[in-house]
Specification:
It is a single chain. Helix content is 18%, strand content 31%. By secondary structure, the chain is an alpha/beta fold. It has one domain: 3-Layer(aba) Sandwich (Dihydrofolate Reductase, subunit A).
Length: 179
Amino acid sequence: MNKVFIATSLDGYIADKEGQIDWLHSIPNPENDDMGYNKFISTVDALIMGRTTFETVLSFGIDWPYEIPVFVLSTTLKAIPEELQEKVELTKGSPKEILEMIHSKGFDELYIDGGTTIQGFLSQDLIDQLIITTIPVLLGGGSPLFGTFDQRLSFQHVRSSRYLDCIVQNEYLRKKNES
């Protein structure tokens, strides 16, 4: 199963016009509520992320936050930092080719992260679950979560959760067309 766990602004952006994500922390969270992230991450075998997301995580200046294997999609990145060589693998190809390669390594429950990466997987109808956390802020532009697609994709709403009295998280499962 290919899963997305991501936050957006009210107007559907995952980064602002400058590519920043500091607005994600605009709501005070004194208890450091993870809003379901730890439960979610315990359900996946590996993470597929785009280069921009990878570089964003590296820019946080923290220890590598993932204990599962990470596959970074990039046609331009040539090397992974030495300290992450055992944890991160560079890969390229179509979403279907990438999935075949990752499945051949025994990973089946996958976390798909990064706007362009998510859009690429959606365009090939390769996303089974969407968990979208909406932060109550309007950015007025930036990097959208969704792009344009050649086909309609239907999802079934499974649940809504409310965090910090103002953040809403919705979970959807892909509803395949019955032929």
